[in-house]
Amino acid sequence: MGLTWECLDLDNGTLTIKQQLRREQHKDGQFYFSKPKNNKTRTLTLAPSVVKLFRLQKLEQNGKRLKAGKSWTEKDLVFSNEVGGFLSHRVIYRCFKELVKEIGTPSTRFHDLRHTYAVMAIQSGDDIKTVQENLGHATAAFTLDVYGHVTAQMKQASADRMEKKIQAVSGRKFQ
Q1: Rounded distance, CA 169 to CA 163, Å?
Q2: Which CATH class is domain 1-108?
């Protein structure tokens, strides 16, 4: 959870991924920022509802900052503990599991969210290049190999799109 407010441009609805939060391996290891796995920065365009949620998060965090007073540690984190510090992996995991249970999703890992996004984006008709760039993959071929499962729903949607094209070109409906 290394997202900082400087990486968000809520006025333009973008999020720039330029770092990841890491923790030193030894017990009580310190948190630190490093470059993303592929050393590349990427900018995502956010859905308006996500921008609204980030704005609400900012308001909630401002309330925490006021409550904490001089105890607040300014790290510019979007997701912080009650005094502005890093959230532990245990806290993130516990909150995630509570949310998964609340919405009735079967056993889900945090990393499954990435997979869910990729599959849903492809099924919704997003072009593979956009999905590839959003995920930070080097090639679209890799994205397709990992996430490009063809479902019956996708096959039907493809047939429906083709039918619309045929009707548009021919000027008539076939029964």
Answers
A1: 10
A2: mainly alpha
Strands 31-34 and 20-23: antiparallel
What does pTM read for this prediction? 0.76
Banded pLDDT at 35 (limits 50, 70, 90):
confident
Question: Would you say the C-alpha torsion 87, 91, 92, 98 has a positive or negative sign?
Answer: negative
β-pairing, 8-9 with 14-17?
antiparallel
The β-bridge partners of 17 are 42
Ordered alpha helix ranges (H), 22-151: 48-68, 89-103, 112-123, 128-135, 140-147
Burial of 161 (0-12, 13-18, 19+ CB in 10 A): exposed
Instruction: Express the helix, strand and coil content of the chain in percent, nearest 5 each.
Output: 50, 10, 40
**Of 127, 138, 106, 121, nearest in space to 47 by CA:** 121
Residues spanned by CATH 1.10.443.10 within the chain? Answer: 1-108
Residue whose pair of structure tokens reads 């308001």 in the numeric block: 59
pLDDT confidence of residue 27: 65
Task: Give the tens place of pLDDT for each residue, 58-105.
Answer: 999 999 999 999 999 999 999 999 999 988 888 888 998 998 889 888
